[in-house]
Every structure is written in structure tokens, then in C-alpha cells.
Design a protein that fits this description.
- Keywords: Coiled coil.
- The chain has 491 residues and is mostly helical.
- The protein contains 12 helices and 3 strands; from the N terminus they run βααααααααααβααβ.
- The protein has one domain.
Length: 491
């Protein structure tokens, strides 16, 4: 069995392996792109030699001029490109260093939390034995349970109304003429249009029977909004009642000599929360830099493409390929040597381009794995599985982790196995503040649920099974279609 903190550390190590391989492949891609550019220069030089051998002086000077000009311009562009790539690489190295430093700080805060929580767990039996005899505590527990029951009822009504809005509102949202009038605020104080537009809009409104449809559509959207607002208000009441319950428990632990441990645990929790928020920022910043770096290293940057195109255009002028073909057919020794060099250069370019495509495919897979692993780590921490009171099977952080990294199982399936395999080893009773994930089987109401946007229906919702906030939209949503990719390295 592996305890929660160690399980998270192993996931972190896998994340570090992914980042290391990303860095290695990015360097390989950058080197391959640079070699291709240099080989294009060598190819140009060989064509210049060929021109000197086979062309008359006037034609030779012309060829030399446009090839040399293309080389000069391309080299200038490539130099700027290399400078930008170095700048991104330095920023990426700084972010990676910040991530490692921040993770180390989290480990320190978690160590403090573990020690404090161990003391609180030792006190929990006698503390709750006394609390269970306290009428005020029993009344407050009842208040929390009643607030939760009220929320469940209100939330269920809101969800039914929201489902009705999605299903019954679809015909309205799918009618472009109706939505055109609705979004313009037709027949309301906000409607602005000239006389001709008003006349045409009025004609459209009569055609789609807008005046009959609009009230139904408004009501269809208004009801779930109001019900959701009520459910949110009830949830606020749960938080208030929960805080009162926690205050009684805190006082009881303090009375049994647990004040220092309680304050240390609470302070450590706050620090961990701040660190996790910081890690999200750093991971997203890193993802954006990796995305930019991939464009540069794989030749997708416009400046790089311009440079390569310049070099290629210098070699694709009318007559040069004919010159090359003619040289291949002659038996002169000097011609043959130049042709062999050009053939070797072009063969190497093809090989490097093949390597570049393989790196590109692998980096895409690694990026998806990394983002999915970030999603899993986020859920892991949100569920508080990183606490020492949780145990997990070794297979989850060994064989199954390897299967996930290879693409044999999806991220959502892998996360589901974590949820199914968790084993709570803490005390039977713990502070309400520690029960964000309610490992004993109940629902969690101690933190705000994600609010819905107050609009007139959704036009598409995410299929993601993960809740990690993203500042960049790239990456999968818990489902992948690249399981057949043959991976290398450690996974």
C-alpha cells in the first residue's frame, strides 16, 4: 500500500519525467531544424560549384548573385530565429525551476500538516466522545444536516429545470431568425435600428411568430436561473452553519490540548492551497511556453519558414534543376563529385525531416499526457487524497500509471481507478474542516460549487470529467484517440 503523500510524489516524478523528455525532444527538434537549414546552405554552395563548372561566365554570375542573396537574407532571419528560441528556452528553464521549488515548498507544508494531523487524530476519540454529550453540538449538527437536505432538494429542482431548458430550449436556439431578433432585443427598450431595418425585422417577427414564442423562451430560461440562485443561497447557508460547527469542534480540540496542532494544521492547509494555486499558474505558463517552443523547434515559426523558403527558392530557379539533371548524366569526374554531394545532402535532409516529424508526434503525445496528468493531480488534491489518512494499491502508481502514460487506458479511466481504490485509514471521527471529500461516504458541501452562467441556455458544454481550471484551451478533455502511438523512453 502507498499512502496519499507518497502517491502524489510518484505522480510528480512521472510529471518530471515527461517534462525531461519534452526538453530532450525539443532540443532534438531544434538541432534537426538547424541542421536542415545548414544543409540547405551546403546544397546552395554545391550548386554554385556546379554552375562554375557547367555554365558560361555570364550565366554563372547571375546564378551566383541570386543564390548568394538568398543565403544572406536567410542567414539573417535564422539568426533572429535562433535568438528567439534561446529566449524561450531560458524562460522555460526558469519556469521549470520555479515548479520544482514550489513543489518542494508544498512537501514541507504537507510534512507540517501530517505531524499536526497525527496529533489531532490521536485526540479525536476523546474529543468527539465529549462533543456527542453536548446538546449545543448536537443541535448544530442537526442545523447543518437540515441545510444540506434543503440544498439537495433545491439543487435537484434546479437541475431538472436546467435540463428542461436545454431540451425544450433547443428548437428556439436552433432557429437563426428567432435568435437574431432575440439577441438584438427586438420589441424591447434596448432595440436600436433604422426604419428600414425595423420594417424588415417586423416582417421576420411575424413570419416566425416571435411575439408568441418569446414569452415561452424567456420563462424557460428564467425559471432555472431563479432556482439556481435559490440553491446557491442555500449553499451559502450550509457554509455558515458548517463554520459554526467547526468553531465548536475547534474549541473542543483546544480544550484537550490540541490548539497548537490545530493551528498548525489549518495554517499548513492555507499554505498548501496557495501553493496549489501557484502551481496551476506555473503549469499553464509552462504549457504556453512549450507550445511556442514547439512552433520554433519544428520549423512552424513564420520567420524560420521564410528563411527556408528563401534558400529553397534560390535552388528552384528555372534552369538549376535542369543543370543538376544534366550533370547527373555526364561522365565528368568533377560533375559526379558535386552531384554525389548534392544527393548526400538531400538524403540527409529527408532523414532529418523524418526525425523531425517523429519528434513532433511524440511531443504532441507528451503534451497531452502532461496536461491529463495535471488534471488527475488536481482532482487528487481536491479530493484530499494526498493526505496520510488515505492508502492506495501499489499497482495504481506502478503498472496502471505506466499503462496510462503509454496510452493503453484513458485519463478518465485511470482517475476512476484511483477513486475506486481509495482506502481511508484515518480516525472514525475527524474535524468537519477535514472532511472536504467526506471519505466516509457523504457528499461534500463545504466549498462552493461551480456557478452556471446566467444566460439563455448553453450552446455546447465541455465533456471534460476534470475540474482543473485552464488558462489555455489546448489539450484533451479526459478522452484520447492516440492510444495506438508507439511510445519510447520510460513510457
Amino acid at each position: 500500500m502507498v499512502k496519499g503523500p507518497e502517491a502524489l510524489r510518484r505522480l510528480d516524478r512521472s510529471m518530471r519525467d515527461i517534462r525531461d523528455e519534452e526538453r530532450s525532444l525539443s532540443r532534438t527538434s531544434a538541432d534537426a531544424s538547424a541542421k536542415i537549414a545548414r544543409l540547405r546552405e551546403v546544397e546552395s554552395e554545391q550548386f554554385l560549384h556546379l554552375a562554375k563548372v557547367r555554365l558560361d561566365p555570364k550565366k554563372r554570375d547571375e546564378v551566383t548573385e541570386y543564390i548568394s542573396r538568398a543565403e544572406k537574407e536567410a542567414n539573417s532571419i535564422l539568426k533572429r530565429h535562433a535568438g528567439k528560441l534561446d529566449e524561450i528556452s531560458e524562460l522555460l528553464a526558469d519556469v521549470d525551476k520555479d515548479i520544482e521549488t514550489t513543489r518542494a515548498k508544498r512537501d514541507e507544508a504537507m510534512s507540517d500538516f501530517e505531524q499536526a494531523q497525527k496529533k489531532l487524530d490521536q485526540l479525536s476519540t476523546e474529543v468527539f466522545a465529549d462533543l456527542d454529550k453536548d446538546p449545543a453540538y448536537a443541535a448544530q449538527k442537526q442545523a447543518v444536516e437540515e441545510a444540506i437536505a434543503t440544498f439537495d432538494h433545491a439543487n435537484k429542482k434546479a437541475e431538472v429545470a436546467e435540463q428542461d431548458r436545454e431540451e425544450k430550449g433547443a428548437p428556439y436556439r436552433n432557429d437563426p431568425l428567432f435568435m437574431y431578433l432575440f439577441e438584438r432585443g427586438f420589441n424591447t427598450g434596448s432595440y436600436r435600428a433604422n426604419n428600414i431595418t425595423r420594417m424588415l425585422d417586423g416582417w421576420v417577427a411575424r413570419m416566425v411568430r416571435y411575439h408568441d414564442a418569446k414569452p415561452n423562451f424567456v420563462i424557460l430560461n428564467e425559471i432555472p436561473m431563479r432556482l439556481r440562485e435559490h440553491a446557491d443561497q442555500v449553499q451559502d447557508e450550509i457554509d455558515e452553519e458548517q463554520q459554526k460547527l467547526e468553531a465548536l469542534e475547534d474549541a473542543a480540540f483546544d480544550a484537550h490540548g490540541g490548539k497548537k496542532a490545530r493551528e498548525t494544521a489549518d495554517r499548513s492547509e492555507e499554505i498548501i492551497g496557495e501553493i496549489d494555486a501557484r502551481l496551476v499558474e506555473l503549469e499553464d505558463k509552462r504549457d504556453e511556453l512549450v507550445h511556442r517552443q514547439r512552433k520554433f523547434t519544428q520549423g512552424q515559426n513564420p520567420a524560420y519558414r521564410e528563411a527556408v523558403d528563401l534558400l529553397a527558392s534560390g535552388l528552384q530557379r528555372e534552369g538549376l534543376e535542369d543543370l543538376y539533371a544534366a550533370a547527373r548524366q555526364t561522365a565528368t569526374r568533377e560533375d559526379d563529385q558535386i552531384v554525389r554531394k548534392i544527393d548526400a545532402v538531400r538524403s540527409e535532409i529527408i532523414s532529418l525531416e523524418t526525425e523531425l516529424r517523429a519528434c513532433k508526434d511524440r511531443l504532441k503525445v507528451l503534451s497531452e499526457r502532461r496536461r491529463e496528468l495535471e488534471d488527475i493531480e488536481w482532482e487528487f488534491k481536491q479530493k484530499r487524497y494526498d493526505r496520510p489518512s488515505f492508502d492506495f494499491d501499489d499497482d495504481l502508481v506502478e503498472d496502471l500509471l505506466g499503462e496510462f502514460l503509454k496510452g493503453a487506458i484513458t485519463a478518465s479511466s485511470y482517475w476512476g481507478k484511483w477513486q475506486d481504490a481509495k482506502k481511508y485509514r484515518g480516525p472514525k471521527r475527524s474535524r468537519s474542516k477535514d472532511q472536504y471529500s467526506n471519505p466516509w461516504g457523504g457528499k461534500s458541501y463545504s466549498s462552493k460549487k461551480k456557478r452556471r452562467s446566467k444566460d439563455f441556455g448553453t450552446f455546447g458544454s465541455s465533456s471534460s470529467e476534470f475540474s482543473r481550471p485552464r488558462s489555455t484551451p489546448r489539450g484533451s478533455k479526459g478522452k484520447r484517440d492516440h492510444g495506438g502511438f508507439k511510445t519510447g523512453g520510460k513510457f
